[in-house]
Structures are given as C-alpha cells and as structure tokens.
From TrEMBL:
<dbReference type="Pfam" id="PF00877">
    <property type="entry name" value="NLPC_P60"/>
</dbReference>
<keyword id="KW-0788">Thiol protease</keyword>
<dbReference type="GO" id="GO:0008234">
    <property type="term" value="F:cysteine-type peptidase activity"/>
</dbReference>
<feature type="coiled-coil region">
    <location>
        <begin position="158"/>
        <end position="185"/>
    </location>
</feature>
<protein>
    <submittedName>
        <fullName>NlpC/P60 family protein</fullName>
    </submittedName>
</protein>
<comment type="similarity">
    <text>Belongs to the peptidase C40 family.</text>
</comment>
<dbReference type="InterPro" id="IPR038765">
    <property type="entry name" value="Papain-like_cys_pep_sf"/>
</dbReference>
<keyword id="KW-0645">Protease</keyword>
<dbReference type="InterPro" id="IPR051202">
    <property type="entry name" value="Peptidase_C40"/>
</dbReference>
<dbReference type="InterPro" id="IPR003646">
    <property type="entry name" value="SH3-like_bac-type"/>
</dbReference>
<feature type="domain" description="NlpC/P60">
    <location>
        <begin position="187"/>
        <end position="300"/>
    </location>
</feature>
<keyword id="KW-0378">Hydrolase</keyword>
<dbReference type="GO" id="GO:0006508">
    <property type="term" value="P:proteolysis"/>
</dbReference>
<feature type="domain" description="SH3b">
    <location>
        <begin position="70"/>
        <end position="133"/>
    </location>
</feature>
<dbReference type="Pfam" id="PF08239">
    <property type="entry name" value="SH3_3"/>
</dbReference>
<dbReference type="InterPro" id="IPR000064">
    <property type="entry name" value="NLP_P60_dom"/>
</dbReference>
<keyword id="KW-0175">Coiled coil</keyword>
C-alpha cells in the first residue's frame, strides 16, 4: 500500500513540476530550458520504488544557464549605424552606434530590432548588428581585451542626436581655442624673430657673408637669424623656396620668410620685410611687395 502511495505521490509531484516549469526557447537562446536527462524515466521510477528517500524532480532536470551577453547586440559597420524612432528608414534617427558599440536587445529580432543603448531607445536594421552567439563571443573578447575590473566598462554605448550635437559643438570650440592658442604662440615667436633681426639694421651687406655683425648677404642674413632660434635653413634662396609650409601673402605673419627672384627677407608685418638689401644699403627695411613675390614660407 505504501509503495502504491509513493508511486501516486511521485507521479503527482512529477506532473505538477512539469506543469510549473514549461520549456521555452527565446530567439537568442541556443539551449532549451528543463531538458530531461539521458537516463530513462523507468530508472527514475525504479529509484523511487526501491528507496524510502524522497526524490525531487529537480534532481533529474538539467539546469540551463542563459549566456551572460546573449541579450546584447554590437554594431557591425564601418562608419555608423542609425538608431531610428520607428522600424523604417523614413523615420527620424535618434542616435548612432559606431563600430563595435553595444546595445541591449529589448524587442523581437526581425528585419528591425528594438534596442536600448546609453540614453537611446529605438530600432536598428538587423543586418548590421551582431546578435546571439556572435554577440556573446564579441562581448567576451572585448571584456578580456579591456583589462577593466567592471565588464560594463569594456563597452561603449550610443550617442543620442542631442548628445552628438553637444559633443561636436564642444570639439569645435576646443579646436578653435587650440588654433587661437597656437596662432598666438606662433605670432609671439615670429615677433621675437623680427625683433632679433632688427637689432642688426645698419650692419653691412657682404656677398657670401653670414655674420650678422660683420656682414651678410640676403640668404646668409636670414639663415643666421633663424639659426639663433634653432631653425636650420639651407644657404641659398633657391633652396629656401622649398622649406617650411607655403602660405599666401595675404596670410603672412611676422616671422614668415618671403622669397623673390634671387632674394629673401623676413616679413615684419604691416607690409614690410627686414633684409640684407645690397652693398650700398646694408641690412635694412623694404616694402614686402617691392618686386614680384615667388613664395611665402612659414617656418614656425
């Protein structure tokens, strides 16, 4: 009688457990929940009949652990992937996923997939994301390569349209400030070069000379002035035509050099150059446009 009762109780318990834990499969899953083991049900029942111990059905079920990153997606693109407000290319874009940026899948995977990434929720075209096992593998690789203590720090998430606009505005502002700072530094250095060169106004012009005090020709004068600031220049005007960066005369600043046919001078600003003019005039100042300009070169 006890054996029959135990059989009945086991079957009721087993049936109830199977009802309470139905097997389900999600799109991104690769295993099915509550799979029965390879051992036959007859052996399970035999164990029950021959033993007085209480046998729990859970002891004979294979537990399934879902992959930690199976609900993630990664942008599989070269440039960026739009996150759109609706699952259509006609809808407004609300964010962007750049290459390998991460998102969480929050809707069914079809032609379009609903995702959440950062502060952005919307739809991405499914052909351009990694999902399922591929996403899990990608996530594990990124976590391993990141060397961070927190796995979340290995992933980068989407920017909203507003966040992108704010970032671009900030970057533009920082770039402008940096350019202004560099221009100011160049202007300061250029003016220092001009100030140094002007100390030698009135000194003699000597063909082939490079001495700022005892005499220099036009290229020797320019070469020696820039050497004082650690800038090495070739000896002849023809070779100087290819140094530094070319700029237009309209863009010339103090410290640029201006080259003519067989002559060179240092631009002072205000349309003037300081240069070794000739044997009769020595080192002095001329209008920058006293003759045709071949090129203006920036060295700083």
């Amino acid at each position: 009688m006890d054996s029959i009762l135990r059989k009945g109780l086991f079957l009721v318990t087993f049936t109830g457990a199977m009802t309470a834990f139905p097997a389900t499969v999600k799109a991104s899953d690769t295993v099915t929940d509550n799979i029965m083991p390879q051992v036959g049900i007859e052996e399970v029942l035999s164990d029950c009949y021959l033993s007085d111990k209480q046998i729990e059905v859970e002891d004979y079920l294979v537990p399934t652990q879902k992959g930690e990153y199976l609900d993630m997606a990664f942008a599989n693109v070269q440039s960026f992937l739009y996150i759109r407000s609706e699952p259509t290319t006609d809808s407004e874009w609300v964010g962007k996923l750049y290459p390998d940026y991460a998102a969480k899948i929050i809707g069914p995977v079809g032609e379009w997939t609903q995702v959440q990434s950062g502060s952005v929720t919307g739809y991405v075209y499914s052909d351009y994301i990694l999902i399922g096992k591929n996403a899990e593998q990608k996530a594990q690789e990124m976590v391993q390569n990141s060397g961070t203590e927190s796995p979340d720090e290995a992933f980068t998430y989407a920017e909203s349209k507003e966040e992108e606009a704010a970032r671009l505005e900030k970057e533009a502002s920082e770039a402008a400030a940096k350019a202004e700072e560099e221009a100011s530094a160049k202007a300061g250095t250029g003016q220092a070069i001009v100030d140094y060169a002007c100390q030698f106004i009135g000194n003699p012009y000597v063909w082939g000379g490079t001495s700022l005090t005892n005499g220099a020709d036009c290229s020797g004068f320019v070469q020696s002035v820039f050497a004082h600031f650690g800038i090495s220049l070739p000896r002849t005007t023809w070779d100087m035509e290819n140094v530094g960066t070319p700029v237009s005369y309209d863009q010339a600043i103090a410290g640029d050099i201006i080259l003519y046919d067989g002559h060179v001078g240092i631009y002072m600003g205000d349309g003037q150059i300081v240069n070794a003019i000739n044997s009769s005039r020595g080192i002095g100042i001329l209008p920058a446009t006293y003759t045709s300009i071949i090129t203006v070169r920036r060295l700083i």
